[in-house]
Amino acid sequence: MEVFIKRLTQTDTNKRLAIPTNSLVYFPGFRGNHSVELKVKDKSHRLWTFHCSIRKKRYLKPVFSSGWLEFIRSNNLRIGDKVSFRLEQGHVSGVEYGIAVQRKIRLLGKDVWADVL
């Protein structure tokens, strides 16, 4: 199940990934806390740990911080790439989340989205 899709901005590639607030329902670990660590598997089955936090007051503004920039740098991601974050069903290893990345390329005169990861 897809949790969110986002095209990366400069802030997303240099500091942290801002995620849609309505995605928080898929992160049950908050339960009274303002941060949670998420185990996320990419398409090559590499496991990543992202620290997801929210503000303590009013507007929650969830972000991925710790672990996110390592993911960006390790995969040479850039502004405009499209990130798809999903909830995995039937996992065996305890990983509940998956991530995929696509990049727009020009192929035979047409723009297409190609898998980066």
UniProtKB/TrEMBL annotation:
Subcellular location, principal: nucleus
InterPro entries with a match to the protein in the record: B3_DNA-bd (IPR003340), DNA-bd_pseudobarrel_sf (IPR015300), LEC2-like (IPR044800)
Entry annotated with the keyword Ribonucleoprotein: no
Subcellular localization, as worded in the UniProt entry: Nucleus
A Gene Ontology cellular-component term: nucleus
Keywords: DNA-binding, Nucleus, Transcription, Transcription regulation
Domain called TF-B3: residue spans: 2-105
A UniProt-annotated Pfam family: B3
SUPFAM superfamilies given in the database record: DNA-binding pseudobarrel domain
PROSITE patterns for the chain: B3
Any GO MF annotation of the entry: DNA binding
Keyword NAD: no
Name of this chain's protein: TF-B3 domain-containing protein
Organism: Theobroma cacao
Phylogenetic placement of the source organism: Eukaryota, Viridiplantae, Streptophyta, Embryophyta, Tracheophyta
